[in-house]
Each structure stands twice: as structure tokens, then as C-alpha cells.
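Section 3.1: Structural characterization of target chains.
Under the original work plan, the team committed to producing a structural model for every single-chain target entering the pipeline before any wet-lab resources were allocated. The record below documents one such target. The sequence was received from the expression subgroup and is listed exactly as submitted; it comprises 238 residues.
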Amino acid sequence: MFPIRDHNPSGRVPYVTYALMAANIGIFLSMLPIFEDERALAQLYYNWALLPRRVMGGDGYAALLTSQFLHAGWMHIAGNMLFLWIFGDNVEDEMGHLPYLGFYLLAGTLSGYAHVISDPASFVPMVGASGAIAGVMGGYLLLFPKARIDVLFIIKIITIPAWIMLVLWFVMQFTGSILTRPGQGGIAYWAHTGGFVAGFLLALPLWVKLGGKQFWRKTRGHPPHPPARYGMPKVKRK
């Protein structure tokens, strides 16, 4: 089940979301020549990727931020940017541009700490924006639980409430966190899990300020904008 779009365009241009996407894509494209040089790639990861053992040794703290802008391949960057594009604009619209930027970076940093704590002796580098984006998804769940999300389910596009998709995604990440052995490469499940929880908790003050459950009743759990409607245009045939 893979999300492809939501039905809730933001009320204003999400400049920060677009800037974050541009930064991630630009950095990834600049890294392409390095992928063919193992020594240069290893040096880049040592300098800028998140290495839990370095952090636990009192070094490499900057990587909690810089690792958020590095990606390991085309599918990695494409998947992360799709999720950011779907969920980022409405959260930015509700928070405001600068608070949203702080929220994004802080959620990403906390997700990195979750990864470090889960495997403190690891020297496997962690890269990617998915921890920060998981935080955006956690905030989205709290603010807009009934927003309509189109997902690709096997070979068919279906529309479901955001909370179903987001809760299922979180359960998958948490399950992966429990089942993955320390020291393994692959997906940083604890970073996803920690980022999601961090984003949910960081969005709580805004949700309370907006009225809490009263905000849900007022908006019916949707972003406060007219929904977009998708479908094939109607045509007459001769």
C-alpha cells in the first residue's frame, strides 16, 4: 500500500517543503559521481552520515542534521520526496513556514537520536530524510486524521482516511524495529519510529492551541481547505 497523493491542497505556497525537496534532490545529484568511487563515498559518509558509535563517543553530532540531506540511491530519494510532497504542505500551512522548518529539523534530529540509542555501537552509516519526514507524518496524523489519501493497493488506486494509512505505516516501522538485529544495514526502522513519535508529540502544542478536539470537530479531521477531486474527465463518444 503506497500513497501517491492527497485530496487536500494547502492554502498557501509551501515554500519550505519545496526548498527542502530542492535541497535533498540537489545534494543527491551532486553525489552521483561519488557513488562510483568507494573510497570517496566512504569518506563522505564518515564526515556527514550519522555513525552511532561516533556520537556515543562524543563526536559527530553535526551528522544528526547533515545526514538528513544525504540519500543512498534513486529509490531512496524518490520515495522520501514523494512522502514529503504529500504530507508536508498541509503541516507547513498550519504551522507557518519558519516553525515548520524548525519542527522538521528537530524531528529529524530526534529520529537520529532514536537510531543511535537503538544501536549505540554501530559503525554502519545512516543517511536519509525519512526520519524527519516520519515526524511530518506524525504531525499530519494528529492534525488531519481524516484527510483523504489515495494509495496504490496492488494494482488499484483506492482512497482511505489518512489515519488508516499512517497507523499501518507506523505499525510496520515499529514491527521492523523489534525484528531487526543491531548492526544490520538496510532500513533504519528505529529512526522512522522515533521520528514519527517525535513529530506527533511536537505537534501537540499546536493542536491544543487550535482547540484540540474542538479543532477536529470544526475541520472534521481534514485540512481547512476545499478538497481536490480527481478522476477521468467525462466525454461524449460518437
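The longest strand covers residues 148-153.
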